[in-house]
């Protein structure tokens, strides 16, 4: 598979009335063709800001201050808003968390899909656009496409609305589909259906997916690779199976330990104690040092380097350094 997207040392700052938030602090990752990458982390870890940077959808007070975002070799971080408008919806599309706020309540389902085609497929006739919209409604598993075409979002269930959002995102056959917590607003049964739908669609339309989530259960079901974010940095990345069975970073281990298990009845759930770092004044050492149960003095003083733990397994932790034993002493 060839490299489709490459993010190198991306840094994003958010300006607030209280100071500068270093929301993303030098992250690097890649996405290959027809691959699914999951970016995992707690709220405030920087995962959503990272993908909004790729889409050119940072808030007005947000700015990319370093690094590059290469889509097939072209640096999107240098693109103007006008240039990004040709990329969004065509080469890269995004599914947002809440389908009700993602859809226009005053427009029919069909018209919302057609609007995307009008913007990016100007060579299509009105009849072709309607046919494509009906095809997409059927593709995402919604029955009676002709009827649904003329319905409004409020006439559909939450699961159906999310399917419509996916149809809108796929209208122009994007190379990359970014899904930001796509199942958060749905109940467990519908979550499973949406994840199965995304996997099925990926095979059919041969797109690449970046899924943003805090739910490692979602990761196990859909991802090929996983990148774990904490404090604006990537602290671990690996093949999904290797991440689950050969976890290296204490934060990732904490996330896995906190997943409720069906066999565990009664008692307290495992939790990571403490709070994430203040990114207006990030710690000079490891961002997880204040919450880690294996912290050494070096962790507080110096940021750990990116360590290679396997063929494509990386982690930022001083415990992986060959000098760790000396540091403990």
Uncertain ranges? none
CATH class placement of the largest domain:
Alpha Beta
> Based on DSSP secondary structure assignment, what is the total number of beta strands?
12
What is the architecture of the largest domain at the second tier of CATH? 3-Layer(aba) Sandwich
CATH superfamily of the largest domain: P-loop containing nucleotide triphosphate hydrolases
Q: Could you give the order of strands across the largest sheet? A: 6-7-8-3-9-10-12-11
N-to-C order of helices and strands: EEEHEEHEHHHHHEHEHEEHHHEEH
- The SS-based structural class is alpha/beta
Distance N to C terminus: 45 Å
Main pleated sheet: 8 strands, mixed
Tell me the radius of gyration: 21 Å
CATH topology type of the largest domain? Rossmann fold
Q: What do the pLDDT scores average to?
A: 91
What share of residues is helical? 25-40%
The dominant shape is globular
């Amino acid at each position: 598979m060839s490299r489709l997207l490459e993010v190198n040392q991306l840094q994003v700052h958010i300006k607030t009335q209280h100071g500068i938030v270093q929301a993303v602090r030098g992250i690097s990752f890649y996405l290959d063709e027809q691959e699914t990458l999951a970016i995992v982390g707690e709220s405030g870890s920087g995962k959503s800001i990272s993908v909004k940077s790729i889409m050119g959808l940072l808030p007005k007070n947000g700015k990319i201050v370093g690094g590059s975002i290469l889509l097939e070799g072209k640096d999107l971080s240098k693109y103007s808003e006008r240039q990004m408008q040709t990329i969004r919806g065509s080469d890269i599309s995004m599914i947002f968390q809440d389908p009700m706020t993602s859809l226009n309540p005053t427009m029919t389902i069909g018209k919302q899909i057609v609007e995307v085609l009008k913007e990016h497929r100007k060579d299509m006739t009105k009849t072709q656009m309607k046919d494509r919209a009906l095809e997409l409604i059927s593709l995402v598993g919604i029955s009676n496409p002709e009827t649904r075409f003329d319905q409004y979002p409020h006439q559909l269930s939450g699961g159906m609305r999310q399917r419509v959002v996916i149809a809108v995102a796929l209208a122009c056959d994007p190379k990359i589909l970014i899904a930001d917590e796509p199942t958060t607003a749905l109940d467990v049964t519908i979550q499973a259906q949406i994840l199965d739908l995304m996997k099925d669609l990926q095979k059919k339309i041969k797109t690449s997916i970046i899924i943003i989530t805090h739910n490692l259960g979602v990761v196990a079901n859909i991802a090929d690779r996983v990148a774990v974010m904490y404090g604006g940095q990537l602290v671990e990345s690996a093949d999904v199976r290797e991440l689950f069975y050969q976890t290296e970073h204490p934060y990732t281990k904490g996330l896995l330990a906190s997943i409720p298990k069906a066999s565990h009845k009664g008692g307290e759930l495992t939790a990571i104690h403490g709070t994430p770092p203040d990114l207006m004044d990030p710690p000079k050492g490891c961002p997880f040092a204040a919450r880690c149960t294996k912290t050494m003095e070096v962790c507080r003083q110096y940021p750990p380097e990116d360590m290679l733990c396997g063929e494509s397994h990386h982690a930022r932790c001083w415990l992986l350094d060959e000098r760790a034993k000396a540091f403990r002493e």
